[in-house]
Amino acid sequence: MKAENDLLKFNTARELHNHVQQIRENYHEDMISSKMKIRQRAMTLYFIDRVCSVLGHCSVSKVALHDWYNKHTSTNS
Question: What distance in Å separates the CA atoms of residue 36 and residue 39, rounded to the nearest whole number?
């Protein structure tokens, strides 16, 4: 069971690799939004991304973040 969960995490991280650059571009663009909530969300994403990059083991968190980001940017932008 644990091996299956680990495999799922690794596969998710591999798939996320294809989306990381677009997520970064999106939150960098959102940093200059006229809406405070969008700027705050962008800064939060930036800090999470930086911490994960330094620690090197947050890839699964980024997947959840990517899904959340897509859901919220399509309705709040």
Answer: 5
Question: Which 3 state secondary structure label does DSSP give 58?
Answer: coil
pLDDT tens column, 11-35: 887 887 788 888 899 999 999 999 9
Q: What is the DSSP letter of 18?
A: T
User: Is there a contact between 39 and 28 (Cβ–Cβ < 8 Å)?
Assistant: no
Span between the terminal Cα atoms of the chain, in Å: 40
Q: Tell me how far apart the alpha carbons of residues 45 and 37 are, in angstroms, rounded to a whole number.
A: 12
pLDDT digits (tens, 9 = 90+) for 63-73: 556 666 666 66
DSSP code per residue over 22-48? HHHHHHHHHTT-SSHHHHHHHHHHHHH
CB neighbour burial string for 2-22, b if at least 16 within 10 angstroms, e if fewer? eeeeeeeeeebeeebeeeeee
